[in-house]
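[job 4471] stage=fold_predict status=RUNNING
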Amino acid sequence: MSERACPRSDAEHRHYLGIRSMTTTTAQLRASPLDALQRWLPKLVLAPSMFIVLVGFYGYILWTFVLSFTTSTFLPTYKWAGLAQYARLFDNDRWWVASKNLLLFGGLFIAISLAIGVLLAVLLDQRIRREGFIRTIYLYPMALSMIVTGTAWKWLLNPGMGLDKLLRDWGWEGFRLDWLIDPDRVVYCLVIAAVWQASGFIMAMFLAGLRGVDPSIIRAAQMDGASMPRIYWTVVLPSLRPVFFSALMILSHIAIKSFDLVAAMTAGGPGYSSDLPAMFMYAFTFSRGQMGMGSASAILMLGAILAILVPYLYSELRSKRHA
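[job 4471] inference complete, writing C-alpha coordinates
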Protein backbone atom coordinates (compact mmCIF):
# COMPACT_ATOMS: atom_id res chain seq x y z
CA MET A 1 0.00 0.00 0.00
CA SER A 2 2.75 2.41 0.86
CA GLU A 3 4.57 1.90 -2.43
CA ARG A 4 1.37 2.63 -4.31
CA ALA A 5 0.55 5.62 -2.07
CA CYS A 6 3.86 7.38 -2.60
CA PRO A 7 3.42 8.13 -6.31
CA ARG A 8 -0.11 9.31 -5.66
CA SER A 9 1.17 11.54 -2.84
CA ASP A 10 3.86 13.01 -5.09
CA ALA A 11 1.32 13.77 -7.77
CA GLU A 12 -0.96 15.44 -5.28
CA HIS A 13 1.98 17.45 -3.93
CA ARG A 14 2.96 18.64 -7.41
CA HIS A 15 -0.65 19.56 -8.11
CA TYR A 16 -0.76 21.52 -4.85
CA LEU A 17 2.46 23.39 -5.71
CA GLY A 18 1.10 24.20 -9.15
CA ILE A 19 -2.10 25.65 -7.72
CA ARG A 20 -0.13 27.65 -5.13
CA SER A 21 2.21 29.01 -7.80
CA MET A 22 -0.73 30.08 -9.94
CA THR A 23 -2.37 31.72 -6.94
CA THR A 24 0.85 33.60 -6.09
CA THR A 25 1.29 34.74 -9.68
CA THR A 26 -2.31 35.91 -9.85
CA ALA A 27 -1.88 37.81 -6.58
CA GLN A 28 1.30 39.43 -7.89
CA LEU A 29 -0.45 40.44 -11.10
CA ARG A 30 -3.29 41.92 -9.11
CA ALA A 31 -0.93 43.78 -6.76
CA SER A 32 1.50 44.95 -9.44
CA PRO A 33 -0.42 48.14 -10.42
CA LEU A 34 -0.54 49.24 -6.79
CA ASP A 35 3.11 48.38 -6.27
CA ALA A 36 4.05 50.27 -9.42
CA LEU A 37 2.06 53.28 -8.23
CA GLN A 38 3.82 53.19 -4.88
CA ARG A 39 7.18 53.05 -6.63
CA TRP A 40 6.39 55.89 -9.02
CA LEU A 41 4.37 58.11 -6.68
CA PRO A 42 7.41 59.93 -5.17
CA LYS A 43 8.78 60.55 -8.64
CA LEU A 44 5.44 61.83 -9.88
CA VAL A 45 5.16 64.18 -6.91
CA LEU A 46 8.68 65.54 -7.43
CA ALA A 47 8.42 65.77 -11.22
CA PRO A 48 6.66 69.20 -11.38
CA SER A 49 9.10 70.85 -8.98
CA MET A 50 12.07 69.26 -10.77
CA PHE A 51 10.73 70.52 -14.09
CA ILE A 52 10.29 74.03 -12.69
CA VAL A 53 13.83 74.02 -11.27
CA LEU A 54 15.39 72.70 -14.47
CA VAL A 55 13.51 75.08 -16.75
CA GLY A 56 12.90 78.10 -14.53
CA PHE A 57 16.33 78.15 -12.89
CA TYR A 58 19.02 76.32 -14.86
CA GLY A 59 17.23 76.87 -18.17
CA TYR A 60 17.09 80.63 -17.67
CA ILE A 61 20.69 80.72 -16.50
CA LEU A 62 21.69 79.04 -19.75
CA TRP A 63 19.43 81.40 -21.75
CA THR A 64 20.94 84.45 -20.02
CA PHE A 65 24.42 83.12 -20.80
CA VAL A 66 23.48 82.82 -24.49
CA LEU A 67 21.93 86.32 -24.58
CA SER A 68 25.13 87.82 -23.17
CA PHE A 69 26.85 86.91 -26.45
CA THR A 70 24.14 88.42 -28.68
CA THR A 71 23.06 91.87 -29.81
CA SER A 72 19.77 91.70 -27.86
CA THR A 73 18.19 95.07 -27.08
CA PHE A 74 14.54 95.44 -26.02
CA LEU A 75 13.75 91.88 -27.15
CA PRO A 76 15.97 88.80 -27.37
CA THR A 77 17.77 88.31 -30.66
CA TYR A 78 20.26 85.62 -31.49
CA LYS A 79 22.69 87.49 -33.69
CA TRP A 80 26.13 86.51 -32.46
CA ALA A 81 28.20 89.37 -31.01
CA GLY A 82 30.98 87.48 -29.28
CA LEU A 83 32.43 89.32 -26.29
CA ALA A 84 31.18 92.72 -27.45
CA GLN A 85 28.63 93.03 -24.63
CA TYR A 86 31.29 92.29 -22.02
CA ALA A 87 33.60 94.87 -23.60
CA ARG A 88 30.78 97.45 -23.52
CA LEU A 89 30.09 96.52 -19.91
CA PHE A 90 33.68 97.09 -18.84
CA ASP A 91 33.70 100.45 -20.63
CA ASN A 92 30.58 101.58 -18.77
CA ASP A 93 31.29 103.96 -15.88
CA ARG A 94 28.03 103.06 -14.17
CA TRP A 95 29.08 99.40 -13.99
CA TRP A 96 32.33 100.32 -12.25
CA VAL A 97 30.46 102.54 -9.79
CA ALA A 98 28.11 99.62 -9.03
CA SER A 99 31.07 97.24 -8.62
CA LYS A 100 32.92 99.59 -6.26
CA ASN A 101 29.72 100.09 -4.28
CA LEU A 102 29.34 96.32 -4.00
CA LEU A 103 32.84 95.96 -2.58
CA LEU A 104 32.19 98.72 -0.05
CA PHE A 105 28.65 97.63 0.79
CA GLY A 106 29.46 93.92 0.87
CA GLY A 107 32.61 94.30 2.94
CA LEU A 108 30.99 96.50 5.59
CA PHE A 109 27.73 94.54 5.59
CA ILE A 110 29.44 91.16 6.08
CA ALA A 111 31.97 92.37 8.66
CA ILE A 112 29.49 94.34 10.80
CA SER A 113 26.78 91.67 10.63
CA LEU A 114 29.24 88.99 11.71
CA ALA A 115 30.62 91.14 14.53
CA ILE A 116 27.19 92.11 15.90
CA GLY A 117 25.80 88.60 15.43
CA VAL A 118 28.70 86.94 17.27
CA LEU A 119 28.59 89.51 20.09
CA LEU A 120 24.83 89.10 20.60
CA ALA A 121 25.15 85.30 20.48
CA VAL A 122 27.89 85.31 23.14
CA LEU A 123 25.83 87.60 25.39
CA LEU A 124 22.70 85.45 25.04
CA ASP A 125 24.77 82.33 25.68
CA GLN A 126 25.21 83.51 29.27
CA ARG A 127 21.64 82.30 30.02
CA ILE A 128 20.37 85.79 30.79
CA ARG A 129 16.81 86.46 31.88
CA ARG A 130 14.17 87.04 29.19
CA GLU A 131 16.44 85.39 26.67
CA GLY A 132 13.54 84.16 24.52
CA PHE A 133 11.99 87.62 24.37
CA ILE A 134 15.30 89.30 23.50
CA ARG A 135 16.09 86.66 20.86
CA THR A 136 12.68 87.25 19.26
CA ILE A 137 13.27 91.01 19.18
CA TYR A 138 16.60 90.57 17.40
CA LEU A 139 15.20 87.99 14.99
CA TYR A 140 12.12 90.00 14.06
CA PRO A 141 13.77 92.13 11.33
CA MET A 142 14.65 88.97 9.39
CA ALA A 143 10.94 88.21 9.08
CA LEU A 144 10.48 91.43 7.09
CA SER A 145 11.11 91.71 3.39
CA MET A 146 13.88 93.93 2.10
CA ILE A 147 11.24 96.17 0.55
CA VAL A 148 9.73 96.86 3.98
CA THR A 149 13.16 97.34 5.51
CA GLY A 150 14.24 99.75 2.78
CA THR A 151 11.04 101.76 3.02
CA ALA A 152 11.24 102.03 6.81
CA TRP A 153 14.86 103.18 6.79
CA LYS A 154 14.13 105.57 3.94
CA TRP A 155 11.62 107.29 6.21
CA LEU A 156 14.00 107.26 9.19
CA LEU A 157 16.94 108.71 7.24
CA ASN A 158 14.93 111.16 5.18
CA PRO A 159 16.22 114.66 6.09
CA GLY A 160 12.76 116.16 5.73
CA MET A 161 10.80 113.76 7.92
CA GLY A 162 13.11 111.36 9.76
CA LEU A 163 15.64 111.45 12.58
CA ASP A 164 17.28 114.55 11.16
CA LYS A 165 14.09 116.62 11.42
CA LEU A 166 13.12 115.10 14.77
CA LEU A 167 16.39 116.00 16.48
CA ARG A 168 16.42 119.50 15.01
CA ASP A 169 12.87 120.03 16.22
CA TRP A 170 14.07 119.05 19.69
CA GLY A 171 16.58 121.87 19.62
CA TRP A 172 19.69 120.34 18.02
CA GLU A 173 19.84 122.85 15.19
CA GLY A 174 23.35 121.86 14.18
CA PHE A 175 22.53 118.19 13.75
CA ARG A 176 22.63 116.94 10.16
CA LEU A 177 21.90 113.40 8.96
CA ASP A 178 21.56 113.89 5.23
CA TRP A 179 23.45 110.78 4.12
CA LEU A 180 20.50 109.59 2.05
CA ILE A 181 20.93 112.52 -0.37
CA ASP A 182 24.73 112.64 -0.20
CA PRO A 183 26.32 110.75 -3.13
CA ASP A 184 29.44 110.02 -1.09
CA ARG A 185 27.60 108.58 1.92
CA VAL A 186 24.40 107.05 0.57
CA VAL A 187 25.95 103.55 0.42
CA TYR A 188 26.40 103.65 4.18
CA CYS A 189 22.63 104.05 4.53
CA LEU A 190 22.23 100.76 2.66
CA VAL A 191 24.75 99.16 5.01
CA ILE A 192 22.83 100.34 8.09
CA ALA A 193 19.54 98.95 6.83
CA ALA A 194 21.02 95.64 5.69
CA VAL A 195 22.92 95.09 8.96
CA TRP A 196 19.77 95.85 10.96
CA GLN A 197 17.93 93.11 9.12
CA ALA A 198 20.60 90.40 8.89
CA SER A 199 22.50 90.59 12.20
CA GLY A 200 19.72 88.93 14.18
CA PHE A 201 19.76 85.91 11.87
CA ILE A 202 23.54 85.63 12.23
CA MET A 203 23.06 85.82 16.00
CA ALA A 204 20.64 82.86 15.84
CA MET A 205 23.11 80.82 13.80
CA PHE A 206 25.97 81.40 16.21
CA LEU A 207 23.78 80.90 19.26
CA ALA A 208 22.76 77.49 17.94
CA GLY A 209 26.44 76.70 17.40
CA LEU A 210 27.40 77.87 20.90
CA ARG A 211 24.70 75.71 22.47
CA GLY A 212 26.25 72.72 20.71
CA VAL A 213 29.70 73.21 22.27
CA ASP A 214 30.60 70.64 24.90
CA PRO A 215 30.40 72.37 28.34
CA SER A 216 33.26 70.20 29.62
CA ILE A 217 35.64 72.09 27.31
CA ILE A 218 34.70 75.40 28.93
CA ARG A 219 34.94 73.94 32.42
CA ALA A 220 38.39 72.53 31.67
CA ALA A 221 39.58 75.91 30.41
CA GLN A 222 38.18 77.60 33.52
CA MET A 223 40.05 75.15 35.74
CA ASP A 224 43.23 76.14 33.91
CA GLY A 225 42.57 79.73 34.97
CA ALA A 226 41.39 81.15 31.63
CA SER A 227 38.90 84.02 31.70
CA MET A 228 35.60 83.74 29.86
CA PRO A 229 36.54 86.26 27.13
CA ARG A 230 39.74 84.32 26.48
CA ILE A 231 37.87 81.01 26.46
CA TYR A 232 35.43 82.29 23.85
CA TRP A 233 38.16 83.87 21.75
CA THR A 234 40.66 81.01 21.76
CA VAL A 235 38.54 77.88 22.33
CA VAL A 236 34.83 78.28 21.60
CA LEU A 237 34.71 80.55 18.56
CA PRO A 238 37.46 78.68 16.64
CA SER A 239 35.39 75.52 17.03
CA LEU A 240 32.52 77.25 15.19
CA ARG A 241 34.39 77.37 11.88
CA PRO A 242 31.53 75.71 9.91
CA VAL A 243 29.10 78.31 11.28
CA PHE A 244 31.44 81.11 10.21
CA PHE A 245 31.65 79.72 6.69
CA SER A 246 27.88 79.26 6.46
CA ALA A 247 27.24 82.80 7.69
CA LEU A 248 29.82 84.15 5.25
CA MET A 249 28.14 82.33 2.36
CA ILE A 250 24.68 83.61 3.29
CA LEU A 251 25.80 87.21 3.79
CA SER A 252 27.83 87.23 0.57
CA HIS A 253 24.86 85.91 -1.35
CA ILE A 254 22.60 88.59 0.13
CA ALA A 255 25.12 91.34 -0.69
CA ILE A 256 25.66 90.29 -4.32
CA LYS A 257 21.98 89.92 -5.17
CA SER A 258 20.79 93.01 -3.26
CA PHE A 259 18.20 94.66 -5.44
CA ASP A 260 14.98 95.19 -3.50
CA LEU A 261 16.71 97.08 -0.67
CA VAL A 262 18.28 99.52 -3.14
CA ALA A 263 15.07 99.84 -5.16
CA ALA A 264 13.01 100.68 -2.08
CA MET A 265 15.51 102.89 -0.30
CA THR A 266 17.42 104.90 -2.92
CA ALA A 267 16.44 103.59 -6.40
CA GLY A 268 20.16 103.81 -7.16
CA GLY A 269 20.31 107.56 -6.50
CA PRO A 270 21.29 110.26 -6.14
CA GLY A 271 22.03 109.79 -9.83
CA TYR A 272 23.49 106.28 -9.84
CA SER A 273 25.79 106.79 -6.86
CA SER A 274 24.18 103.96 -4.86
CA ASP A 275 23.87 101.49 -7.73
CA LEU A 276 24.72 97.86 -7.06
CA PRO A 277 25.24 95.25 -9.82
CA ALA A 278 21.74 93.81 -9.35
CA MET A 279 20.22 97.28 -9.79
CA PHE A 280 22.44 97.90 -12.82
CA MET A 281 21.34 94.59 -14.38
CA TYR A 282 17.65 95.38 -13.89
CA ALA A 283 17.95 98.93 -15.23
CA PHE A 284 19.81 97.98 -18.39
CA THR A 285 17.80 94.83 -19.11
CA PHE A 286 14.27 96.09 -18.52
CA SER A 287 14.39 99.89 -18.55
CA ARG A 288 17.08 100.92 -21.00
CA GLY A 289 16.59 98.23 -23.62
CA GLN A 290 20.11 96.78 -23.47
CA MET A 291 19.31 93.15 -22.73
CA GLY A 292 22.63 91.87 -24.01
CA MET A 293 24.69 94.01 -21.65
CA GLY A 294 22.26 93.35 -18.80
CA SER A 295 22.69 89.61 -19.38
CA ALA A 296 26.46 90.02 -19.35
CA SER A 297 26.28 91.78 -15.97
CA ALA A 298 24.04 88.99 -14.64
CA ILE A 299 26.58 86.36 -15.72
CA LEU A 300 29.36 88.26 -13.94
CA MET A 301 27.22 88.35 -10.78
CA LEU A 302 26.71 84.58 -11.08
CA GLY A 303 30.45 84.17 -11.47
CA ALA A 304 31.05 86.17 -8.29
CA ILE A 305 28.65 83.92 -6.37
CA LEU A 306 30.29 80.77 -7.77
CA ALA A 307 33.74 82.12 -6.90
CA ILE A 308 32.66 82.17 -3.26
CA LEU A 309 30.47 79.06 -3.24
CA VAL A 310 32.65 76.55 -5.10
CA PRO A 311 35.74 76.79 -2.81
CA TYR A 312 33.45 76.49 0.22
CA LEU A 313 31.74 73.37 -1.13
CA TYR A 314 35.11 71.90 -2.13
CA SER A 315 36.55 72.42 1.36
CA GLU A 316 33.45 70.94 3.00
CA LEU A 317 33.41 67.86 0.78
CA ARG A 318 37.14 67.40 1.22
CA SER A 319 36.90 67.59 5.01
CA LYS A 320 34.04 65.07 5.05
CA ARG A 321 35.99 62.73 2.79
CA HIS A 322 39.05 62.85 5.05
CA ALA A 323 36.85 62.48 8.15
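[job 4471] summary: The chain has 13 helices and no strands.
[job 4471] exit 0
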